[in-house]
Amino acid sequence: MTFKERQALRKQATIELNLGNIGEYEKLMRKAREANPNYETPLEKVWGSANAIVVDRRKVVKKLVEAGYDNKEIITKCGVTDTTIRKDIRILKEIGTIKDKQEIS
Q: How do residues 15-47 score in pLDDT, each as one tens digit?
């Protein structure tokens, strides 16, 4: 979807809002946002997910990694599988939320 098409959706959404159709407004605005290929929510930019449960877990993982815990200790504290923890750590490193031990030295 091109920029002009997204702008037209936003304009139509504003008209719907002025008419009092909040549900239609939200639907059109969501469609315009999601059509933008570079759109990311603030949570996705920092934590790699918009899911609240995943974001909370990754915050805990970040704190534990920075405190020097190893993967087995993190797994027991978070109560999830080792695959999930490794994926969380990998994603947080890719995004830059946590630094590699080699990068810190």
A: 999 999 899 998 888 888 877 766 667 777 888
Output the six-digit token pair for 105: 């030295």
Contact indicator for 14, 26 with CB cutoff of 8 Å:
no
Evaluate the CA torsion angle 48, 53, 59, 60 in order and state its sign.
negative
The count of other CB atoms within 10 Å of the CB of residue 91 is 17
Residue 105 buriedness (CB in 10 A; 0-12 / 13-18 / 19+): exposed
Token pair belonging to 78? 């978070």
What's residue 11's pLDDT? 93
